[in-house]
Amino acid sequence: xxxxxxxxxVERQQMLAAIGVTTIEDLFEAVPASHRFPRLNLPRxxxxxxxxxxxxxxxxxxEHAGEFALFRGAGAYHHFTPSAVNHxxxxxxxxxxxxxxxxxxxxxxxxxIFEYQSMMCALTGMEAANASHYDGATSLAEAVTVxxxxxxxxxxIVLSGGIHPQYREVVRTYNQGRTVxxxxxxxxxxxxxxxxxxxxxxxxxxxxxxxxxxxxxxxxKLVEVAHAKGALVTFVVNPLALALLKPPGAxxxxxxxxxxxxxxxxxxxxxPYVGFFAVRTRYVRKIAGRIVGETVxxxxxxxxxxxxxxxxxxxxxxxxxxxxxxxxGLMALAVCxxxxxxxxxxxxxxxxxNYQKAHYAARRIAALPGxxxxxxLPFFNEFVVKCSKPVAAINDALIAEGxxxxxxxxxxxxxxxxxxxxxxxEMNTREEIDVLVSVLEKLA
Amino acid sequence: xxxxVMDVLTKEALEPTLYDLSVPGRVGVNLxxxxxxxxxxxxDLLRDELRLPELSELQVVRHxxxxxxxxxxxxxxxYPLGSCTMKYNPKLNEDMxxxxxxxxxxxLVDGEASQGALALMYDLQKWLGEIVGFEAVSLAPxxxxxxxxxxxxxxxxxxxxxxxxxxxxxxxxxxxHGTNPATVTMAGYEVIELPADSEGGVDLDALKKxxxxxxxxxxxxxxxxxxxxxxxxxxxxxVIDLVHAAGGLMxxxxxxxxxxxxxxxxxxxxFDVLHYNLHKTFSTPHGGGGPGSGPVGVNAKLxxxxxxxxxxIVEPAQGDEPPLYGLVMPEQSIGRLKAFxxxxxxxxxxxxxxxxxxxxxxxxVSRHAVLNANYIRARLMDTYRIPYPRYCGHEFxxxxxxxxxxDIHALDISKRLxxxxxxxxxxxxxxxxxxxxxxxxxxxxxKETLDEFIDVMKKIARxxxxxxxxxxxxxxxxxxxxxxxxxxxxxxxLCCRPALPEAGD
Lengths: 444, 505
Description:
The complex is a heterodimer.
Chain A: H1 9-19, H2 48-60, E1 69-70, H3 83-89, H4 92-95, H5 107-124, E2 128-129, H6 136-150, E3 156-159, H7 165-174, E4 181-183, H8 191-195, E5 202-209, H9 220-228, E6 232-237, E7 255-259, E8 275-279, E9 292-296, E10 302-306, H10 313-316, H11 329-366, E11 371-373, E12 382-387, H12 391-400, E13 403-404, E14 407-408, E15 419-423, H13 430-443
Parallel strand pairs in A: 1-13, 3-4, 3-5, 5-6, 6-7
Antiparallel strand pairs in A: 2-8, 7-8, 9-10, 11-12, 12-15, 14-15
Helix pairs in contact in A: 3-11, 5-11, 6-7, 11-13
Chain B: H1 18-21, H2 57-69, H3 91-97, H4 100-103, H5 115-132, E1 136-138, H6 144-161, E2 169-173, H7 179-186, E3 190-194, H8 204-214, E4 218-224, H9 236-245, E5 249-253, H10 266-269, E6 273-275, E7 296-298, E8 310-315, E9 324-328, H11 344-380, E10 396-399, H12 410-419, E11 426-427, E12 436-439, H13 447-466, H14 468-472, H15 485-490
Parallel strand pairs in B: 2-3, 2-4, 4-5, 5-6
Antiparallel strand pairs in B: 1-7, 6-7, 8-9, 10-12, 11-12
């Protein structure tokens, strides 16, 4: 028998006899006969050795961070992950378990989620976090839903154009069947200009910190205006930057969301990643997704369980605010293990390496003729480089030297034609940065 | 039901939290020195404190190994959790997802730099389409519920694009997964619930009546095949015809595809759209609650509306040169459902899985999943009440009410199974069967494992009558006993206390 099916012919016959039929096909009598057992036009079965050979070839056909110096971020980042993370993730007790609906058999998963929630609260400065959403973009979409419910009968959402373009697309996809107006991101706007768009119909204003261009904007006035008008404020954050920067909780955020990928999750061509979601306690009963809480068992032993379950779709059905069922369990576990290993000192150290290396690269590139760097605002590990020729031409030249260059901003922002979003992390050595600079120099 | 529990902690935790284990100044990672000239950090932007734990690498490893030992998992034993398809997750697939060319591939590399990944996604789209008889597939959705949402948004956009804007209602059988009605609401639509008939199928008279009553306000119907009771809908062609005649489109919840591969193609039955659960049917691991992956397949009618991006051939093959693949947005796409292009790591695993079975093996998966379920069903029939006297699909439901044991509930039987080292079936779902236990063995389990489960279920049935307290006090053999869920919800403790700022901070 092919694949992973263990039955022998003898066993099949014994089982069929116990059921009282002669062939397996007899069990499918309810399927319309005219459509039963169609031909499948699939390739032939392969042995494990053949699969490895084929997939290795497919993997090798890609230009990846294992072989190229990568200076691209834009929402997905190449960071160091200690070996222990992957070893622990590969324990079958974690990755072949289901959702912890039976808490007596799932204390490992439940405690790890509880610890993940705790560390996301610590990083964001918020009071409660859920077990995660699909990714940073869908976390932002779920934040919109929370705001629309928390602030009754308001239909306007103010979005900063500094939020990742794909996140803003996702938010619109989610809300196409609802009455919601999105404003703010159709043109470049400062925080002060965004504040002018907040009216009595505004449920939420969302900003990114650092923004998509890597810059750290001052949102204090914007938060003040939003709260004065009764609107919630959502921060979309890079969690690694929060090892260094003031937490959004201290800056007046009501909801903090973001992509957890920089904390121990591989690039993996864009997924699976993990969207974190943290709030003030007063909104915790309005949020979607799984939440783990502490309790005791019959003997008084401390233990963990999924809680506030009546919010969820399997109980509330059509009255649930979201249909989300899974969390990104294993990715949240990766973040949890990664943060436990890096800890208070290590995470700060990684963040500082990112800051210093990005600033070194920015200074060097800014000194090149034909290039300039936008230094108008402080930045973390990404910055905007203005080029004297199309970004695609520069990236073609870089790839020939083994370098994946920055992200072409002109694709999403017409006014940023010939601008490249450059990302530098702790993975980029000084040598790589110097080579990047020397190749750019020749292109000027 | 949880009985009153002691209000004070009387026992030690099974494992301290990371914060309990933390010691100030301890470090668990070895990082490089900064190799570039540094500059002053901007003091006014910096945080004062970071409340993360401080542990050594070995402490972290032991902590998580201990936590893993508190879990049950497929790798440990039988997991007959109905509607979840807890089949074996091949180890090969984990290795494939971790190949550097996949795991270290940035999602925004330029087109030609990701041809291997795009070729894989293209073939997976094609194979998934072939298995269900659909024209096109998008791998974008991150989970089954995400795929459902995509499906209903596509149905909506289809009607709207034809100027048919009054269609705002979706028919949903009362046996449906909770995600179905929740999805309908999320898409801004209204749910019309349909009753089941005495055989567990859609009540055709009720469906006819609903079609007449709601007429041109019906946008479509969502239905699970086989149903959440594990039964093939014998009159599925009539159901589809009725909804189509009313102008609605048919959505198939593909959660139960493990019964259907090579058995019937939903596209050929007349369905317009369905979602797959790669983490059920195609063996990608459940990961303790995710990540999932929920691609959607559609017929030609809905193809322009697929969520994007999808992979297509942008330059055809020429001679020995392979085609050039690219990411494209379908012309009238409902849009992006998440950043980037779906849960690619799950696509890699599903690709390896389909490769292993191939054309002759995929049908065997469903044949044996159905064989295993019917075998357990046949052998438990003399002990448990099993509604609906028909062969089942890949799962079946029992009513956990036993003669002579009036105080025993499905939950008690579930918890007693834990004492025997077996994960309980899904309890209290579907909602239309009282004291439901939904049992799904999957095709990867041996006859010995099924026999052991059957023996244990029969033993528990005897215990229910003779020593019911064994069930009511179960589990005794698990790391913890039944939990006080009411306390968890009333006295909300959602994170380790040291993680939170102190009052006044």
